Every structure is written in C-alpha cells, then in structure tokens.
Amino acid sequence: MSRLKISEKINMLISIYGRVSSSNQENEGTIETQLSAVYDYASKNGYTIVQKYIDNGWSGDNLARPGLDQLRLDAKKKLWKAVLIYDPDRLARRGAWQEVVIEELQELEIEVLFVTIPQPKTDEEKIMYKMRGVFTEYERMKIKERFRLGKVRKANEGHIIASEAPYGYDFVAKNGKRGDADFHQGYYKINEYESQIVRSIFSWVANDGMSLRCVIRKLQELEIKPRKSKRGVWNTSTLSKLIRNRTYIGEGYYGVSYAVVPTNPIKKEGYKKIKKSSRRSKPKSEWIMIPTPKIIDVKIFSKAAQNLAANFLMSPRNTKNEYLLTGKIWCGCGVRRSGEGPQKGKHLYYRCTGRVKNFPLPPSCFEKGVNARIVDSLVWKGICELMSSPELLNKQIERWYNCRENRKYAPVINYDETKMEISKLKDQESRFLKAYAIGAINVEQLKEYLGPIKEKITNFKNQISKSKSESDSIIEMKLPEKSQIEIFSNKTAEVIKNLNFIVKKAIVRNVIDKVVVVNGELQVYGFIPVTSDVNVFTDYRNGASINRHDVMVYSTSSIPFTLAITLPPPLQRGVDYGFRKAA
Ligand SMILES: [Zn+2]
Predict the structure, then answer these.
(1) How close is the Cα of 358 to the center of ligand 1, in Å?
(2) What is the CATH number of the domain that holds 310?
(3) Separation of 336 CA from ligand 1 center, angstroms?
(4) Cβ(82)–Cβ(12) under 8 Å?
C-alpha cells in the first residue's frame, strides 16, 4: 500500500461511497445523514471530492451493486487517489467481502478511508482491524437473533407482529411501555367497510360458486378498489391470498415462511437489491397461532377453498398443452404472446399478453390470437427447409452481407439521444429522492414514482447494450465455409424427420431468437449454428432454457436468418382442420 505524506493528503482528490439498504433505514439512517458525516470528514481533512458513488436501497449481502461496480471500474482509471466511506459495513456486510474490495483497491494504489475508524498503521493495528469485521458480524448475528426471539415471544403471547393488517382489519399500533396504565400491544381491529367486502367476496365464491376472475369483474363493476394498486383493480393473486388467509376465521399466524435466495429467479442477470427475495413455507407445526377477531365463519371459509380448488381443476387456463414457441413469440405491439387454450383442446392460440395483464380493464392491444398449431407447424417447416438446404442457407448469408452494408450507415438506435433520455430520467429520480428526503412524499409514494422511471431506465440501458452487442457481433461473426454448410445441411436433412416434441422444442430454442406476429405474417429471426456435429440437446433442461432472457450466444460460425411466413386466412367456426391431438 502506498502511504501518502501528510502534505500530499491536503487537497487529495478522493471519491466517496455510500450505501443504505431499503429495509434498514431506521437503524442505518438515510443516505443523506451518512453522506453529511462523510462530507464533514473530507472537509476537515482537506480532501477534494471529485466523484460520488451511491447505492441507495441496496443490501450489503451482495457485492453486485451498480454504484460499487462503477467505483471499482473507475478505480482503474486513477481519477482519484482514495475512496472515503462512512464505515466498513457500508462496503459489505461480511468482513471477507470488505477485504476483497479493499485489497482490490489497494492493489491499484488507492487508499480506502473510513470516517468511523482510523487507518491501521502498524501490523498489529492491521490485524485488529481485520478482527473488527469478524466481531461486527458476530454482533449483528446476536442482535438479529435477539430480535427474532423477541418476536417469537411476542407471537407466543398472542400479539400481532406485523404492522400492516390484512384487508378487512385496521392495525392499532402498540401504545406506551410495559407497565404503563394505558399500555397495550399492537392488535387488529375489524374495519367495518372492508370486512363487509371480505364477507361478500367469500359468499360469492362459497355460495355462488364464482371464479376469482368473476369476483374481480364484480368488484370492478361495483367500483370497489383494493387498498393499494396502481391500476385501481384487484388481481387474482391478491384475491387468492385473501381467500386463503386464515386471519379471517380468527387464526393469524406468525412464522409461516422465511426468506430465501430464489432458486429459479425470473431475472437472472443484472443487479439485485436484496439477495433473499423469495420466500419458502415453514412446516405448519412451526407456525405460531395468534388469535384475531373473526370475520368469516369456518364453514364458509372451507367451502370457498373447495370451490376454488374445483374451479382450478376445471379451468381452461390450467393447461398442459404443448407450445413449440413458448417464450419466443411476440405480438406486433411489442408485448409477448403466450399459449392459451382448453386442455386437450382443438384450438390453441398464441395471444398477446397485453390483453391478460390489463384485465379487468379494457385490453391495450386488439391484435387477434393466432392458431398455435398452424403457427408451430409453419415455423417448424420453415426452419427445417432452411436448415436442410445449402441454397437457402447461402441465400441467408448473402442477405446478411447486404444488410450489413446498409447498417453501416444506419445505426439501430441513436446512442447519444438514448443516453440523454437516461440522464433526464435520472434527474427525475433524484428529484423524487430529494422530495422523499425532506419528507414531502412518503416511502409508498416514492416507490410508486420511482418504479416506472427505473423501468424506463433499464429499458433504455438494455437497448444500448443490445444494440452494441448486435453491432459487435456483426464485426465478430465468423461465417461457415461452403463445404461446412453442405455437410451440415445434409446431416440435418437426415436427422430432422420424425423428431419428438421435446427435441423440436430444443431446436427451436437453439435456433430461433424471436417470432413476431404482424399483419397476418410471421417474422422469424434467428441464428443457425453450423457445426459439424448436429447436437441439439445441450441447451434444454426440464423444459426450461438456460438462457431465459434471450442472451444470444453467437456460435463461432452461425448463419443469421430472417424468414417471412404468410399466415393462412383465419379459421372458420365449425370446420375440423385436423388439429385435434391424437388420443
Ligand atoms: Zn399485442
């Protein structure tokens, strides 16, 4: 490590790093309080801050944070000589991880300074410094455990732990301290208006046999809104949780589930604010029952559960149909299409999910569903023909060459403009954060405002990286030799007849990037990996692709292709087109 002389430290250019997790702002303080301590320290020591890196709302359980990543990247550019942080905990929760970052920065001759602890100078101090990390970890575990035990004890005494009551109740917060005359623990009180609605919902399901979607429609007609929702309408998951919530029959529970790292996350790449974002149920024997005021009779409650279970079994949505293009087919409006149709039904459709998502509000897209059997067979036929014909493959190579020439003059997106948009959004974001910091808006409002902004930023960033990777791939892509194509197509022609569904789907996943349904036409985009060995099993496991998010893996020699397939006219009612599945 390079130690700077005192004289050099005056006016030393430094960067600062700050982090607070969203769940723990009460204990950790807001990012502003943390930073003001950092600014004080910097000015007292005569440092000049040239760069700020902030992770607001990020857990320290994970080193993958956008601010910290940027800091580590910039460290290599040597824009500043040191980084100042409030305390090592801000860097990472675990001592070992703190060490990882500190060592990495020190190797780049960048000093890591903390406001709360003096820099270790002697070897002894350095050892103590490292030990400190171990002790804080131990302290934290101890505090966590004490909190947990406190909650368990409270639950065992029959007191409510949660601070937010389920729909139908109000939460009356704890008052005073133990021993005070007017002391009471927090409890649920029946909310007259909401409880009446809960009773109606249960009655509709239990007595009238309504499905959850019917209930949603009914609530919509009656203009009964859920407590919080951006769209102002109920959704099936909220309702199905409500129907199963035993609080309504007087049994509140504590300790039903615990947080885990998701095993099959929807988003694989990118940053995660919280590592344990998924929940797993505990065995019922470990649940702690807390008595609550009853809203629903036990008989009605179990009748509703029975009816819902029966509905689910009979539901046409509970499909086990085979769709070749799952996850690959898109609507012209830019939204995914998904397979839908009755179980073992004649007619299965790929429908725009914009329709489903908006329910019960009017759909945002009016594109018609397309018959899945027809689309599957047309697309399959198309790629089979292409893969087994050297002429067609060579034509695709030619097309790609021409298109590349054009692309040189027309970039896919305008980087500068997109970056401008991002920075505008970031300004908006920081205005809301400031509004929150001075108390002009609350956390809920903040979340509501920031959600769409964050989404837009991610979209723009994706556009940039996608477009960059596209243009990179154009430069890097190696096309197969003519002889290779010949061998490949001959082999494919042999193999591709009489494949079962699983293998077909594996090929589709490997080869097709996207199918877009637009104006009665299917536009198919993809890459045909031309290898000497026609092996299609590598990318397919238990029906789930490893590359869930279309991260295109460009094979060293692959042929990009596009196909345009015209759809036949819509099917007519009452005609059997022979799509019925063989029994
Ligand atoms: Zn659509």
Answers:
(1) 11
(2) 3.90.1750.20
(3) 7
(4) yes
Is residue 359 located within the same domain as residue 381?
Answer: yes
Task: Answer whether residue 93 is part of any domain.
Answer: yes
Residue list, CB under 5 A from ion ligand 1: 331, 333, 335, 352, 354, 365, 367
Ligand 1 centroid, distance to 369 Cα (angstroms): 9
> Is residue 330 included in any domain, yes or no?
yes
Domain count within the chain: 3
Type of residue numbered 334: G
For the entire predicted model, the pTM comes to 0.48
Q: Would you state the structure tokens that stand for residue 540, as one six-digit string? A: 């397919």
**Who's near 11: CB < 8 A, 6+ residues apart?**
46, 47, 48
* pLDDT digit string, tens, across residues 228-241: 877 788 988 889 89
In the block, which residue shows the tokens 């368990």?
152
Per the listing, tokens 């007619």 go with 347
**157: in domain:** no
Q: Both 27 and 38 in a single domain? A: yes
3-class secondary structure for 239-306? HHHHHHCHHHHCEEEECCEEEECCCCCCCCCCCCCCCCCEEEECCHHHCEEEECCCCCCHHHHHHHHH
Q: Which domain holds residue 225?
A: 171-250+292-314
Q: Are residues 220 and 190 in the same domain?
A: yes
Count other Cβ atoms within 10 Å, centred on residue 62.
18
Q: Are residues 504 and 384 in the same domain?
A: yes
Ligand 1 centroid to Cα of residue 337, in Å, is 7
A 10 A CB-CB count for 330 gives 21
CATH of the domain at 86: 3.40.50.1390
Judged on CB neighbours under 10 Å (0-12, 13-18, 19+), 167 is buried
Whether residues 186 and 306 share a domain: the answer is yes
Is a pLDDT exceeding 90 seen at residue 166?
yes
What are the CA-CA distances from residue 557 to residues 158, 303, 470, 488 (Å)?
Answer: 66, 60, 15, 12
pLDDT for res 279: 83
Report whether pLDDT(1) > 50.
no
Amino acid at 146: R
Among 432, 427, 426, 458, which residue's Cα sits nearest to residue 447? 432
- Which tens digits make up the pLDDT trace of 430-486? 888 877 777 777 777 888 888 888 888 888 887 777 776 666 555 556 677 888 888
Query: What pLDDT score was predicted for residue 141?
Result: 76
Q: Are 194 and 217 in the same domain?
A: yes
Q: Which of 169, 189, 157, 206 is nearest to 310 (CA)?
A: 206
> How many angstroms is it from 80 CA to the middle of ligand 1?
50
Residue 357 in this model has a pLDDT that exceeds 90: no
Residue 259: inside a domain? no
Winning range, highest mean pLDDT, from 359-363, 474-478, 510-514, 574-578: 510-514
DSSP SS3 for 15:
strand
Indicate if 212 and 302 belong to the same structural domain. yes
Q: Are residues 304 and 214 in the same domain?
A: yes
